[in-house]
Amino acid sequence: MRKVLTLGAVVVLGGFAATAAPASAADVTTTFAVEAGTLSIASAATTANLGKATTSLTGSAVTGTMPKVTVTDNRGSTLGWNSSVASTAFTATVGTTTHTIAASKAKTYILPANGPTLTSAALSAVPTTTAIDAATGLTLGAAQVFVTATTTASNSVDYTPTVQVTIDSNVVSATYSGTVSHTVV
Amino acid sequence: MGLFWIAILAVLGLVLGPAAAQTRPDTDRSGLGIRLLDAPTERRDDPRAQVYVVDHVQPGAKLSRRVEVVNRTGRAARVSLYPAAAELTAGSFQVLPGAAANELTGWMRVSPPTLDLASGASATATVSIAVPADAGGGERYAAVLAEVQGASDAPGITITNRVGVRVYLSVGGPKEPVSDFEISTLQAGRQADGRPVVTAQVRNTGARALDMSGALSLTQGPGGLSAGPFPAELGTTLAPGETSPVQVVLDAAIRGGPWLATLTLRSGQLERAAEATITFPDDAGQRAEPVAAKAVPLTQDPNVLIPLAGGLIGLILLVLLFLLYRRRRRDREEDAAAAQ
Question: Residue B44, Cβ neighbours under 10 Å: how many?
Answer without folding.
Answer: 12
